[in-house]
């Protein structure tokens, strides 16, 4: 099952002082196992553009889709047996402590 893993900042990071996981190790391990299919860090929210159409009119605005302090800073596309495996992968990501991780399965359109 494929999961999109959104990597987000958080205004209330973990206060645990123990060493955070190394992102390069996390990427290497999950790439080697075939569980991470793709992933990349995103540019700053200053580079974001939001596109909407309302009553036939194109509305383009600078910035992310919502006024919030938490923003999506990257993504990873995962291939997992189930949600439990996706959670185990996400919990080892450094941003699970410094930010937050959102897991969302791809819709079954078939």
From TrEMBL:
**Coiled-coil regions listed:** none
Q: InterPro entries this protein is in?
A: Dimeric_a/b-barrel, YCII
Q: Where is the YCII-related domain?
A: 26-105
Its family remark reads: Belongs to the YciI family.
The name this protein carries in UniProt is Transcription initiation protein
Upper lineage is: Bacteria, Bacillati, Actinomycetota, Actinomycetes, Micromonosporales
């Amino acid at each position: 099952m494929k999961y999109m893993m959104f990597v987000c900042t958080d205004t209330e990071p973990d206060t645990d002082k123990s060493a955070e996981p190394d992102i390069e190790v996390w990427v290497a391990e999950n790439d080697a196992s075939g569980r991470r299919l793709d992933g990349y860090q995103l540019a700053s929210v200053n580079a974001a553009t939001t596109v909407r159409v309302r009553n036939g009119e194109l509305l383009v605005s600078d910035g992310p889709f919502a006024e919030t302090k938490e923003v999506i800073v990257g993504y990873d596309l995962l291939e997992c047996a189930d949600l439990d495996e996706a959670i185990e992968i996400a919990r080892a990501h450094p941003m699970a402590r410094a930010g937050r991780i959102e897991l969302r399965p791809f819709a079954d359109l078939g």
